Amino acid sequence: MSSEPMNQAGSPAAPHPAARALVIVDVQNDFCEGGSLAVAGGSVVATAIAEDLLARRASYSVVVATQDWHIDPGSHFSETPDFVEAWPVHCVAGSDGAALHPNLAPAVHLVDAAFRKGRFAAAYSGFEGRLALAGAGDDDESGPLLGDWLRDQGITAVDVVGIAADHCVRATALDARKLGFNTTVITPLTASVNPANNAAVFAELRAAGVTVLSLG
Ligand SMILES: [Zn+2]
């Protein structure tokens, strides 16, 4: 089994002055329109992230994507979901639903590495994700955790975008702060399961020291 990352683009390169990473959270087919757990606006956000990345790739030392990647996540899946802690079946490892959304495709070559989470339990934060290793099985958990990998790249700041602002983006940003990264959520590049949650979620993030950026 190879121990090489999927892609070497983010490996020991010259330090970037900004030492900033873009973390694209869970922009996957099942979380976009037509998916099993569709978030309204998901596909539009996928397009917007791709356009932003094409325009601003040079702002980042590294760009990573996280993927919900479920094999047997227990009570995270339910036939009677409450859409809070129990959800319809989604993002089954290796399925089309778990693949990155095609609207990201124009910029996917600018993504250095994928980190997968939730194989055997719910995992909302991208920092629970481990690097997807080339040639490894869907259940492989031998890759480094996202936070360790970012530190190894010399990253000190992260921008977080993706789906969903009120769940996995929130959890990822809170973990980024806990791990000491200077953390920004770019809200126009997020979509929410329940937009009515946004004010409370963004207030919680700000209280935790996250910069909540709205461009409009
Ligand atoms: Zn999940």
TrEMBL record:
GO MF annotation terms: nicotinamidase activity
Protein name per Swiss-Prot or TrEMBL: nicotinamidase
Keywords: Hydrolase, Metal-binding, Pyridine nucleotide biosynthesis
Biochemical pathway: Cofactor biosynthesis; nicotinate biosynthesis; nicotinate from nicotinamide: step 1/1
Family per similarity comment: Belongs to the isochorismatase family.
Organism of this sequence: Paeniglutamicibacter kerguelensis
Domain Isochorismatase-like, chain residue ranges per copy: 21-214
UniProt key word Protein biosynthesis: no
EC number(s) recorded for this UniProt protein: 3.5.1.19
